[in-house]
Amino acid sequence: MRRRLASVRARATLGTTLVVAVALLAAGTAVLLSLWTNLSDQAGTQAERTAREVAAELAAGQPYRALSLDDDDRPVQVVTEDGTLVAVSEHLERISGTGTDAVRPAPAPAAAPSGDGDGDADADADGDDSAGSAALRPGEIAEDSSYSDGSATVDGESADYRFAAVEVETEDRGTLTVYAGAPLSTERTAVRTALTVMLIGFPLVLAVVAGVTWLMTRRALRPVEGIRREMAAITASADLARRVPEPDTHDEVARLARTTNETLAALEAAVERQRRFVADASHELRSPIASLRTQLEVGAAHPGLLDVPGAVEDTVRLQHLAADLLLLARLDAGERPADARVDLAALAREEAAGRVRVSVDAEPAEVSGSRGQLRRVLANLLDNGQRHAREAVTVTVRREGGRAVVAVADDGDGVPEADRERVFERFVRLDAARSRDDGGAGLGLAIARDVAERHGGTLTVRGTPEGGALFELRLPSV
Q1: What's the whole-model pTM score?
Q2: Does residue 9 form part of some domain?
Q3: Which domain holds residue 274?
Q4: Where does the pLDDT of residue 139 fall: very low under 50, low under 70, confident under 90, or very high at 90 and above?
Q5: Can you tell me the distance from the alpha carbon of 28 to that of 423, in angstroms, rounded to the nearest whole number?
Q6: Fewest C-beta in 10 Å: which of 92, 159, 269, 432?
Q7: 130: region left, alpha or beta (phi > 0 left; psi from -120 to 50 alpha)
């Protein structure tokens, strides 16, 4: 049991730790993705700001050589519609992720005559507009920007960058695209730092969770171990009067302890009833067996003195007692009654036939059960009534709702109210009139009630207006 409890603690600790680990992993991944996205967006915003600054200079007609491209940390490219690099920031040695990998601008073309140049520019512009490559008027900067990730080497140092691309329409140079980059080193450093913190912190958190879960589970299961120890002691000592400790809580363990104590109490009562039953049965059997033996021994020594009727009477009494004990044992074993239809009215008339001072007033009332056991109930009730009646015993059979009721009343002294439950206990005799010789062993009413309960009914006793006893058997009718 101790290993089982340890296993429960281990499983609970492992399960909780795994759940927390999955939750931390999911949360950490979400945090890192969110951090990287936010920082990358910030780098993109910085790159876009640089690109728009250069685009504004181009829209204002600034020559390529006069552009502000001297920021060593921000690689910038200016590319024409046909992909020709016309301007680039200083110290740029390598670049990828933009429109072109070139890092050296192409030579500037010779200036065209004013009229022809304007005509060519206008023609180019018109051609561009007709091709749909730009919907900008000269001097306008596109509102939308595009982003891409790449790398660049500036002044011998390579790094990853977020690039922003912004288009601008110029008067004499057509549509130009400005690529500007912002380094991602800060973002990557921040993400790596956060990842390092998580890699160090998460195991510590999991260790704390595992330790706390282990201790809490141990504390929660400590009452269970107390219950186990006490149950082991009860089993070893066979002392059913002992009880397991009940914790001062309102949880499942406390309910388990209370249920265990209730089970022990019921078991103690059942064992005590069985012990009393065996003792009483042994006592009841001893008397007829001793009487029969005495008569046989006397008859063997003096055949003329053998009381044959007495021996037969003791043998019959012993047979009846053995039959009663056997029936009680079968009832205690939970034997289910037969599923036959029995007319209690006809059964009452059959059982009353041949008995003196017994009258029957019965209407048809069918029930489902064992005909033999129900006959035994009626016989026991009639025997009891005749034993205590002064003049008459009355049997009434009727239907009340969904129940069949058999009432057996006598005009005797009745049963005191304080003893109306005791009469159904085994081997109970309430007065001297119910001696072993003329009153039986005190099993008739106990058998009758057990049979009634096995058939889903009840058997009770109360007084009659005349002062006698009224036994009522109620069974489900069919």
Answers
A1: 0.52
A2: no
A3: 240-335
A4: confident
A5: 76
A6: 432
A7: alpha
Which of 129-138, 434-443, 461-470 shows the lowest per-residue confidence on average (mean pLDDT)? 129-138
Query: Are 411 and 309 found together in one domain?
Result: no
How many domains does the chain fold into? 3
Is-contact 399 477, C-beta < 8 A? yes
Count of other CB atoms within 10 angstroms of residue 39: 18
Asked whether residue 150 falls in the same domain as residue 175, the answer is yes
Residue 341 three-state SS: strand
Supply the DSSP string of 404-469, one letter for each residue: EEEEEEE-SS---GGGTTGGGSTT---STTS-TTTS-SS-HHHHHHHHHHHTT-EEEEEE-TTS-E
Q: Count Cβ atoms below 10 Å from residue 235 Cβ, excluding itself.
A: 9
In the sheet that 358-362 helps form, which strands lie side by side, from edge to edge? 358-362, 393-400, 403-410, 469-476, 458-463
* Model confidence at 131: pLDDT above 80: no
pLDDT digits (tens, 9 = 90+) for 288-322: 888 888 888 888 888 888 788 888 888 888 888 88
Give the pair of three-digit tokens for residue 36.
């990287």
Give me the percent of the chain exceeding a pLDDT of 90. 42
Q: Which of 189, 214, 230 is the last residue of a domain?
A: 189
Q: Any idea what the CATH number is for the domain that residue 448 is in?
A: 3.30.565.10
**Is 437 found in the same domain as 376?**
yes
**Inside any domain, residue 119:** yes
Are both 72 and 129 inside the same structural domain? yes
Are 163 and 271 in the same domain?
A: no
Per-residue model confidence (pLDDT) at position 135: 67
